[in-house]
């Protein structure tokens, strides 16, 4: 290289130009074991330079963070970059042989020499990465397990849901009386969602709306079952296959981690605190308990839990729960509309009746005998005065002489105010 050291070149030449020049140069290299180390020493600076520039930590401090598994200073990004940019253990061992020339090496190679002192570095980094992401994995899995567990318990304990099933079976057997399906002992849970599709003969209501109405009239305790199945909606979104696959992946990582820990050489470094955690066992126990509860539901409702998935079972329950609540609300709206129409009809009939009465009384007051029977007129007038009908709809007017007069529109007579 003409006596020019790598560090001086790397510090001056922009990375983008140096990388391109290096790739072109490597295409001209001959293959063979004697060239492997030289190719590695050219590649290694490019793999770690950007990484070191972004974190700006002393090399010994990065090494100690890894040895101590210091979670306060460890980050997922740091470990991922180390796994991505550091070479394999064999290459690190080759690099460690240059520790006597430490000051003459570039920064990336100096960093490699420092990290080469950590035994089984790559398995250790993989284990640390799993440890850092373990809580996130647990937090993604645990809510699903708990939602299914709670949903299983709620479905089995809900008295309202048990009663609605009994009512559906009763109505179904009544409707099927005389057919081959009469006196059925049970039905598939998925049938609950089909109640809305069964309509009355006049097409004005459905079987589900009919059941909801009867529950309000006769069995109000049944109306509580949607609240008793609070976790069914969340449980319907849990995929048993994805949940099991996540747990299996976690188990494989833990098993590999345990094997790596057993293979770690004894260390005299008191700061080496690498160890595994026990949360998986708790999570696995919760998952097994969840599976047992779902299997017990299969026995309780007479279905095969291995063929009917949790998504399908709880999906049907969640759908029926929502449909039932919709039916109750729609029944309320229907009754309110009917009451509104009824009140409007009664008000209209009352108004028409009062109008007719006024017209009849008015007709009696102004109906004069064609032959001039004044007695009949006066009798009608006296009757109007006694009943007060003569003074309805009266209005004041001021005549030209300044005296106030009252006009009775009901009898068409005008009286001058003689009391002033």
TrEMBL record:
Gene3D superfamilies assigned: 1.20.58.630, Formin, FH2 domain (1.20.58.2220)
GO BP of this protein: actin filament polymerization
Q: Which InterPro entries match?
A: DAD_dom, FH2_Formin, FH2_Formin_sf, Formin_Homology_Diaphanous_sf
Which region ranges are annotated with the description Disordered?
A: 350-372
Q: Which GO terms describe its cellular component?
A: actin filament
- List membrane-spanning regions: none
User: Start and end of every FH2 domain?
Assistant: 1-350
Can you give the residue ranges of the DAD domain? 373-403
Q: What name is this protein filed under?
A: Diaphanous-related formin 2
Can you name the source organism? Cyprinus carpio
């Amino acid at each position: 290289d003409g006596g020019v050291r790598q560090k001086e070149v790397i510090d001056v030449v922009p990375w983008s130009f140096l990388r391109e020049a290096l790739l072109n140069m490597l295409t001209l290299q001959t293959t063979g074991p004697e060239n492997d180390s030289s190719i590695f020493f050219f590649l290694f600076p490019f793999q770690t330079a950007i990484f070191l520039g972004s974190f700006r930590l002393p090399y010994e401090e990065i090494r100690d963070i890894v040895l101590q598994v210091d979670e306060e200073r460890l980050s997922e990004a740091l470990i991922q970059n180390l796994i991505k940019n550091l070479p394999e253990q064999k290459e690190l061992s080759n690099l460690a042989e240059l520790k006597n020339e430490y000051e003459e090496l570039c920064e990336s190679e100096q960093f490699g020499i420092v990290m080469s002192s950590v035994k089984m570095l790559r398995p250790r980094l993989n284990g640390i990465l799993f440890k850092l992401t373990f809580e996130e994995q647990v937090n993604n899995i645990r809510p699903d397990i708990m939602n299914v567990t709670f949903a299983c318990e709620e479905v089995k304990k809900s008295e309202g849901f048990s009663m609605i099933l009994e009512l559906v079976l009763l109505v179904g057997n009544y409707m099927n009386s005389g057919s081959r399906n009469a006196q059925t002992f049970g039905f598939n849970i998925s049938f609950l969602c089909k109640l809305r599709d069964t309509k009355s003969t006049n097409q004005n209501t459905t079987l589900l709306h009919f059941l909801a109405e009867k529950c309000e009239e006769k069995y109000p305790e049944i109306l509580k079952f949607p609240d008793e199945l609070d976790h069914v909606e969340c449980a319907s979104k849990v995929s048993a296959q994805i949940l099991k696959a996540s747990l299996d992946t976690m188990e494989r990582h833990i098993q590999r981690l345990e094997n790596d820990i057993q293979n770690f050489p004894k260390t005299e470094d008191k700061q080496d605190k690498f160890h595994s955690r026990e949360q998986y066992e708790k999570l696995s126990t919760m998952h097994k308990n969840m599976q047992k509860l779902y299997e017990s539901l299969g026995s309780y409702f007479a279905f095969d839990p291995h063929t009917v998935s949790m998504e399908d079972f709880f999906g049907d329950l969640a759908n029926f729960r929502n449909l039932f609540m919709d039916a109750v609300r729609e029944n309320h709206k229907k009754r309110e509309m009917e009451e509104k129409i009824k009140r409007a009809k009664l008000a209209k009939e009352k108004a028409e009746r009062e109008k007719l009465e006024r017209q009849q009384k008015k007709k009696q007051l102004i109906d004069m005998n064609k032959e001039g029977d004044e007695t009949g007129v006066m009798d009608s007038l006296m009757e109007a005065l006694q009943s007060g009908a003569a003074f309805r709809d009266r209005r004041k007017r001021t005549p030209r002489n300044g005296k106030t007069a009252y006009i009775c529109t009901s009898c068409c007579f005008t009286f001058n105010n003689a009391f002033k």
